[in-house]
TrEMBL record:
The record marks 26 as: Deprotonates C-terminal active site Cys. Belongs to the thioredoxin family. One of its GO terms (cellular component) is cytosol. The record marks 33-34 as: Contributes to redox potential value. Keywords: Disulfide bond, Electron transport, Redox-active center, Transport. PANTHER family: GEO12009P1 (PTHR45663). GO terms for biological process: cell redox homeostasis. The lineage of its organism: Bacteria, Bacillati, Actinomycetota, Actinomycetes, Jiangellales. The active site is at residues 32, 35. GO terms for molecular function: protein-disulfide reductase activity. This is Thioredoxin. The keyword Electron transport applies. CDD domains: TRX_family (cd02947).
Length: 107
């Protein structure tokens, strides 16, 4: 099962856009309370399936990637497949709602 890795401006293209399976990117920041609330939920999802890769990108440390992906509110969860963003989820949600929204990628 998966563990959550951290990505940066430098390796975003390689680890996310060029991945051979769908990747959920959690755009977050240390000071963001909802980001801290959703982190354990994402850990649970990462540990319970292996169809969807889950990574985190700190927007304060990696502003170029956050800006290029038009992240204006966090937490922002973007799913990329084949180098393209295919789903966007904004805000912290309970695990059941996240799993429902991610159904086609984690089912």
């Amino acid at each position: 099962m998966g563990t959550i890795q951290h990505v940066t401006d430098a390796d975003f293209e390689e680890k996310v856009l060029k991945s051979d399976k769908p990747v959920l990117v959690d755009f977050w920041a240390e000071w963001c309370r909802p980001c801290q609330m959703i982190a354990p939920v994402l850990e649970e999802i990462a540990n319970s399936q292996d169809k969807l890769e889950i990574v985190k990108l700190n927007i304060d440390e990696n502003p170029a990637t956050a800006a290029a992906n038009r992240v204006t509110s966090i937490p922002a969860l973007h799913v990329y497949s084949g180098g393209e963003m295919v789903k966007q989820i904004i805000g912290a949600k309970p695990k059941s709602l996240l799993l429902n929204e991610l159904g086609e990628y984690v089912g």
